[in-house]
Amino acid sequence: MIRTFITATGTGIGKTLVTSVLTRQLRAQGKTVRALKPVISGFTDKTLAESDTAELLRAMDRPVTPETIAEISPWRFEAPLSPDMAAIREGRSIDFLKLIEFCNAPVQADHILIEGVGGAFVPLNENHLVADWIAELNIPALLVCGSYLGTLSHTIATLEALNNRRVAVTGIIISQSPEGPVPLSEVQATLGRFVGAAEIVCLPRVEEWNTAPDLTALVC
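and the corresponding structure tokens:
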């Protein structure tokens, strides 16, 4: 079993797109995949079908129901805020140890993909960040970044901060932003001078998952 954490330089960058595409590509190779989105904010019953969790369920070819949503996203919050803030508004908090236990629970699958929430340094509760979550799991991470103006600084800084916490970032995926000043290849070339051994893959905005570049080498 191979466990991989998918995080990002910020929110709305493309973590769910990457996790969904990777899930579908691995399954197309005959691999069994368990995709998890343990923590999600901005979630309501009215938007259930359009949620990131629902997209991961569809990628696994599973039905989207309240039960399956709860199965892979047990910590759900309504306010579209950082998890710590969203939880406070509901009189709740994320128990870090239970979160780790959930992610480490034994599952029969070739790959476990764990999608984070927000960026790599978003607070989960009063004492823990997403980066602490990844470090505690002690599994490789993929870092998703955009192609917008400013992404170079955000990506290099995030990678350096993760390395300082001894998080092994094995791949960087440049998810094409709606607006970008240069082609993805130029972003890739510039990042390549600063990111060490991490492999960099460009992911253009695609209409269908099977037209996306192969991401599976990043987790195999």
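(Above: one complete record from the training split.) The chain is about 35% helix and 20% strand.
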